[in-house]
Write a structure and sequence with these properties.
alpha+beta, two-stranded antiparallel sheet, globular
Length: 87
């Protein structure tokens, strides 16, 4: 499973905030470098768990344009592919 996050203060407490790939704290380049160093190419599942009009919760009816969702998916996929290439 691939996703990104950062810490954010919500209701006075620090909590995990899911964000698009490359906007959080996960060091994908070094993580992928380690995987490549061991010759691993594991299957991955890209998770978009940041706010996307309800899609992130599996809702059938969403509150944003489908193009916004597809653009977010494409952006995250491209970011992961680029991090892999750079590692």
């Amino acid at each position: 499973m691939i996703k990104d996050f950062k810490w954010g203060k919500m209701d006075g407490q620090w909590k995990i905030v899911n964000v698009p790939i490359g906007e959080g704290m996960v060091d994908f380049k070094n993580y992928f470098k380690i995987l490549k160093g061991y010759g691993l190419k594991p299957p991955t599942s890209l998770h978009l768990e940041y706010p996307l009009g309800g899609v992130e919760k599996g809702r059938k009816e969403i509150t944003i344009d489908k193009k916004v969702v597809f653009d977010a998916m494409k952006k995250d996929l491209n970011a992961i592919q680029e991090f892999w290439k750079e590692a």
